[in-house]
């Protein structure tokens, strides 16, 4: 398969490690047909995999939220990850993606049959890129609510919505979308959580069930708080962001990255984002390797 040629890839499925982008779904697989799948994303770089246990726990919680029956413990996922990473000798950075999906459906095929839950762990080489900044624009697309989609899960079926928000933003010349919730408050970007800084205070949207309250977001708040910044979760409007001194985003992929343009307004990467980035890297290197 084409993606296999892109970078070193190993997938653990059904008790074995397989090289490459191994084919594991059929046209009759429930996940392929109706989209019942969950995943998580963590990073290994420079010998450490920060917050890997939290990512492993979250993939199990996501599976349960979709009615799947996870058949691995978070500890087993962590152990398997460190085992698989041995296959990446000489590589500097690897993406860690555990997934669960439903192979069969229940009543009329629609709900997932939890007894058919399957697991795989895909590891692939992915260099740590650290963008110096990115631009955002307010998206016409909104985050669904918990009543309309399983927003408490990191589920594949949520991502076509993020995808169309990012595509629409790119078509207007921006790197990413600033996605609002159904009440019109800022939720997150198409691929990360969002923060603003005003008069030295660090603010981020309060979780209200519509967006992923990220692991990197929580870690960054703790680190900035311990350092001495006030960090507050609060309902935030587009205006709050337009009037911010700094904007930055967090996510496991690129960690902490400043926003350097919102709509027509240029922003400089500011001291809080810079400090958050430094603190994250320092903390990450202090975590233990498996
Ligand atoms: N929001 C969305 C939509 C994401 O895809 C991600 C990345 N997984 C995040 C936020 C950040 O979450 P985390 O820090 O747990 O990676």
CATH topology of the largest domain: the name is D-amino Acid Aminotransferase, Chain A, domain 2
Element-level helix/strand string: EEHEEHHEEEHEEEEHEHEEEH
Helix content: 25-40%
Give the radius of gyration. 19 Å
Low-pLDDT runs: none
CATH level-two architecture of the largest domain: Alpha-Beta Barrel
The main sheet comes to:
9 strands, mixed
Instruction: Catalogue the ligands.
Output: 4'-deoxy-4'-aminopyridoxal-5'-phosphate
Number of domains as seen in the coordinates? 2
For the residues shown, what is the average pLDDT?
95
Can you count the beta strands?
A: 15
Going by CATH, what is the homologous superfamily of the largest domain?
D-amino Acid Aminotransferase, subunit A, domain 2
Measured by DSSP, the beta-strand proportion falls in 25-35%
- The number of helices is 7
What is the class of the largest domain in the CATH system? Alpha Beta
Form type: globular
Give the assembly state of these chains.
single chain
Structural class: alpha+beta
Distance between the termini: 31 Å
Enzyme class: transferase
Keywords: Aminotransferase, Transferase
Protein name: Branched-chain amino acid aminotransferase
EC number: 2.6.1.42
